From TrEMBL:
Enzymatic reactions: (6S)-5-formyl-5,6,7,8-tetrahydrofolate + ATP = (6R)-5,10-methenyltetrahydrofolate + ADP + phosphate
Gene: yqgN
Organism encoding this protein: Urinicoccus massiliensis
Taxonomic placement: Bacteria, Bacillati, Bacillota, Tissierellia, Tissierellales
Family: Belongs to the 5-formyltetrahydrofolate cyclo-ligase family.
GO biological process, one term: tetrahydrofolate interconversion
InterPro entries on file: FTHF_cligase (IPR002698), FTHF_cligase-like_sf (IPR024185), NagB/RpiA_transferase-like (IPR037171)
Binding site for substrate: 50
Protein name in the entry: 5-formyltetrahydrofolate cyclo-ligase
Length: 177
């Protein structure tokens, strides 16, 4: 199955995920982040059918420096911006929620990476814009892909520019690659 077909399949499949598994994932993520020693965490701010990160962000933005992406559609890049409250959030391109705060260019301890599907080697298929692959290439840090157990497949046959994550976090907890 090529990437576009796989992407479409998982976009539809995501709509069928059991609410109990999504709730279990959200609770596990809140607990996981609450017990981390990491100071600076970069995470996507979930929208639509994405696995939820908002409650984990809200629960941890006083404990950790939380960064969310701000995208630049012209060059398909993103920068990291700190948020400390809901007042720091604005609507961005692609119906994303972004930060209105200045960009952060310091060290990132942990990056939480979205994906439609991941393989056992840490490669992923996302929405197809390449934003995270470009970002991770230029900003190496420890990366955890967020997914449900059912979103893990044996092999996605990555392209040379695809960047893997080092671990996966599911409703069952952390799984090192």
């Amino acid at each position: 199955m090529d990437k576009n077909t796989c992407r479409q399949y998982w976009l539809e499949k995501r709509k069928t995920f059991q609410p109990e598994k999504i709730q279990a994932f959200q609770e596990a993520l809140i607990d996981f982040l609450s017990n981390l020693e990491a100071q600076t965490i970069f995470s996507y701010f979930s929208i639509k059918d994405e696995l939820p990160t908002r409650q984990a962000i809200y629960a941890n933005w006083q404990r950790h420096r939380i960064l969310i992406p701000r995208t630049n559609p012209q060059d398909r890049s993103m920068e990291t911006c700190p948020i400390r409250s809901k007042e720091d959030l604005v609507d961005g391109p692609f119906h994303l929620i972004e930060a209105k705060t200045p960009a952060y260019d310091g060290k990132i301890d942990l990056c939480l990476v979205p994906g439609l599907v991941f393989d056992r080697q840490g490669f992923r298929i996302g929405y197809g814009g390449g934003y995270y692959d470009r970002f991770l290439k230029d900003h190496p840090c420890y990366c955890i892909g967020l997914c449900l157990e059912e979103q893990i497949v044996p092999d996605l046959k990555p392209a040379p520019y695809d960047m893997p994550v080092q671990a996966l976090f599911t409703e069952q907890g952390l799984r090192q690659i």
